[in-house]
Amino acid sequence: MILVAGGAGYIGSHLVKELVKKEKVIVIDNLSTGHQKMVDENAVFVKGDIGDKSFLEEIFASFPIKAVMHFAANSLVGESVLHPKKYYENNVGSTMTLLHVMLKYGVKHLIFSSTAATYGIPTAGIIDETHPTLPITPYGQSKLMVEQIIQDYAKAYDLRFVSFRYFNAAGAHDSGEIGELHSPETHLIPIVLQHLAGVRKKVSIFGDDYDTPDGTCMRDYIHVTDIANAHILALESLLEGNRATAIYNLGNGQGYSVKEIIETCERLTGVKANVDVFERRNGDPARLVASSKKIEQELGWVPKRNIEQIIVSAWKWHQHHKSLGTTIL
Ligand SMILES: NC(=O)c1ccc[n+]([C@@H]2O[C@H](COP(=O)([O-])OP(=O)(O)OC[C@H]3O[C@@H](n4cnc5c(N)ncnc54)[C@H](O)[C@@H]3O)[C@@H](O)[C@H]2O)c1
Ligand SMILES: O=c1ccn([C@@H]2O[C@H](COP(=O)(O)OP(=O)(O)O[C@H]3O[C@H](CO)[C@H](O)[C@H](O)[C@H]3O)[C@@H](O)[C@H]2O)c(=O)[nH]1
């Protein structure tokens, strides 16, 4: 059985929808930002917090867990600058408890959700895993600290892990049944689509004076199902005892500016956006674009969906969700 911590969240719920086709799955989630209705009905769901040692011990004693996928965290870059305590306590402190219980119960396989925010301000146009890690926010720092803890545990306690540095997760499941649902929503693509769907008055661009071709920040958007598939490949590799420990970027290798994203959303939906320019947001590097060559070479992962497919899938989810009404989840 695979334990998915944070499996009721955006990325975790998409992973679970794919993973249940291959493995028995138990999801634990405190529902602080996730939604139980996003969890596939073929997975076991238990509400609880990964910082709660006795809760975890009960779970590990009751289920035959052979690997952990760890998505549970707070992940808003701007919020982490204002409330670092929340980020270090949950992202680092609670992860320590999860690792403690994993080791106690002899569970030696871990897949961890890290982030491009570990790189800080990039010194290269395309970032590979050898790029220096100098995070500029408590969020990025908290994820880097966990990466380092995991690497030390791997050396000392034979923990086998993959840490994935996701770039910007986006899009929704092909079924249209689940998608991104954060409250408040802070991510660019869902904000633009909510506006175009008529549930938000306008879109604000956070700064148009960056050192990029059109002055707005560039990001590498990667479809959430492509991320899910990378997890499944990594899990298979870990369970087969192949590559024991690794850090991999997950991105498409192409950067899109905030303005380009807004224009692409307008083109694909046929709706014109009402846009204004606001001040820069705390902790935003100008450009974050991945090289994912390492995982391509080592595990054969290549992303299958481009920016248009990402936006179309997210739009389908927004239409579906709107038709269900906002109180359904
Ligand atoms: N969304 C992105 O673009 C992105 C990019 C890079 C990295 N990440 C990382 O990927 C992971 C998932 O991100 P997401 O966008 O799905 O976020 P999310 O907020 O939708 O999901 C996180 C889930 O973890 C749960 N959770 C949080 N703290 C918990 C705790 N102490 N105990 C139990 N459950 C807890 C939440 O309720 C939620 O369901 C996070 O670790 C995030 O840092 C996300
Ligand atoms: O209303 C908005 C929302 C966002 N943006 C801009 O759009 C870009 C993308 O912002 P998102 O909030 O969608 O994503 P982030 O790049 O801030 O962060 C995401 O990717 C990071 C890694 O790249 C982290 O891992 C983080 O967890 C994850 O949320 C940024 O330049 C942001 O300033 C706007 O201009 N207006």
SSE map:
Blueprint: E1 2-5, H1 10-19, E2 25-29, E3 44-47, H2 53-62, E4 67-70, H3 77-82, H4 84-104, E5 109-115, H5 138-157, E6 160-166, E7 168-170, H6 188-196, E8 203-206, E9 218-219, E10 221-223, H7 224-239, E11 245-250, E12 256-257, H8 258-269, E13 275-278, E14 287-288, H9 293-299, H10 307-324
Parallel strand pairs: 1-2, 1-4, 2-3, 4-5, 5-6, 6-11, 7-10, 8-13, 9-14
Antiparallel strand pairs: 9-12
Bound molecules: nicotinamide-adenine-dinucleotide and galactose-uridine-5'-diphosphate (GDU).
The site of nicotinamide-adenine-dinucleotide has 28 residues, from α1, α4, β5 and β7.
Keywords: Carbohydrate metabolism, Galactose metabolism, Isomerase, NAD
Domain NAD-dependent epimerase/dehydratase: 2-251
Pathway: Carbohydrate metabolism; galactose metabolism
Describe the structure in your own words.
Keywords: Carbohydrate metabolism, Galactose metabolism, Isomerase, NAD. Residues 2-251 form the NAD-dependent epimerase/dehydratase domain. The protein is built from ten helices and 14 strands. It has 329 residues and is an alpha/beta fold. It folds into two domains: 2-170 and 221-250, 3-Layer(aba) Sandwich (Rossmann fold); 188-219 and 253-288 and 305-324, UDP-galactose 4-epimerase, domain 1, CATH 3.90.25.10. The strands form four sheets. It has a seven-stranded parallel sheet, with helices on both faces. Helix 1 crosses helix 7 (224-239), helix 2 packs parallel to helix 4 (84-104) and helix 6 (188-196) packs across helix 10 (307-324). The longest helix has 21 residues, at 84-104. The model has no long low-confidence stretch (mean pLDDT 95). Residues 5-6, 8-12, 29-34, 49-51, 71-73, 75, 90, 94, 113, 115, 166, 168-169, 182 line the site of nicotinamide-adenine-dinucleotide.
